[in-house]
Amino acid sequence: MVPTAAPAGVGAAARESDPAGRSVAELCVAAREASRALAVAPTTVKNAALEAIAALLAQRTDEILAANQLDVAAGAEAGLTDALLDRLRLDQRRVTAIAGALSALVALGDPVGEIIEGWRLPNGLDIRKQRVPLGVVAVIYEARPNVTIDAAALCLKSGNAVVLRGSSTAAHSNAVLAALAAEAAQSQGLPAACVTHVSGGGRDELAELATQRDTVDLIIPRGGEELKAALQAVARVPVIYAAAGNCHVYVDAGADLDRAESIVLNAKVQRPGVCNAAEKLLVHADVAAGFLPRIFSSLRAAGVQLRADERALALAGPGAGEVRLASAEDWDTEYLDLTIAVAVVDSVADAIAHIGRHGSGHSEAIVTADVDAARAFQLGVDAACVYVNASTRFTDGGEFGMGAEIGNSTQKLHARGPIGLRELCTYKYLVEGDGHVRS
Amino acid sequence: MVPTAAPAGVGAAARESDPAGRSVAELCVAAREASRALAVAPTTVKNAALEAIAALLAQRTDEILAANQLDVAAGAEAGLTDALLDRLRLDQRRVTAIAGALSALVALGDPVGEIIEGWRLPNGLDIRKQRVPLGVVAVIYEARPNVTIDAAALCLKSGNAVVLRGSSTAAHSNAVLAALAAEAAQSQGLPAACVTHVSGGGRDELAELATQRDTVDLIIPRGGEELKAALQAVARVPVIYAAAGNCHVYVDAGADLDRAESIVLNAKVQRPGVCNAAEKLLVHADVAAGFLPRIFSSLRAAGVQLRADERALALAGPGAGEVRLASAEDWDTEYLDLTIAVAVVDSVADAIAHIGRHGSGHSEAIVTADVDAARAFQLGVDAACVYVNASTRFTDGGEFGMGAEIGNSTQKLHARGPIGLRELCTYKYLVEGDGHVRS
Question: For residues B94-123, b (16+ Cβ closer than 10 Å) or e, as one string?
Answer without folding.
Answer: ebeebbebbeebbebebbbeeeeeeeeeee
